[in-house]
């Protein structure tokens, strides 16, 4: 019985040891994207004309913000 108890203690120690790096990363902060406006109405436009609008995205978080994909419409 004592041997089973010691095995469980060792398992908990090992699990706790391997979780330490993930815990440290989680406490470093997260990126926070703030978008001034998430919608823009281009109105009526002729097909084939190029229209553009710049969306401003600001990172108010404590780590780098990575934008990996953008989709329209």
The geometry reads as rod-shaped
Report the end-to-end length measured between terminal Cα atoms.
63 Å
Number of helices: 1
How many domains? The number is 1
Report the helical percentage. Answer: 25-40%
Write the element-wise H/E pattern from the N-terminal end onward.
HEE
Average pLDDT level: 77
Strand order of the largest sheet: 1-2
Structure description:
The chain is mainly alpha-helical and about 70 residues long. The protein has one domain (about 1-60). It is built from 1 helix and 2 strands; from the N terminus they run H-E-E. Strands 1-2 form a two-stranded antiparallel ribbon. The protein is rod-shaped, with a radius of gyration of 25 Å. The chain starts with a helix and ends in a 14-residue tail after the last strand.
Please name the defining characteristics of this protein.
single chain; two-stranded antiparallel ribbon; mainly alpha; 73 residues
């Amino acid at each position: 019985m004592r041997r089973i108890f010691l095995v469980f203690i060792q398992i908990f120690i090992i699990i706790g040891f391997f979780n330490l790096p993930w815990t440290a990363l989680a406490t470093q902060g997260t990126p926070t994207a703030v978008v001034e406006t998430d919608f823009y109405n281009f109105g009526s436009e002729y097909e084939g004309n190029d229209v553009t609008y710049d969306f401003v995205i600001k990172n108010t978080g404590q780590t780098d913000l990575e934008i990996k994909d953008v989709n329209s419409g």
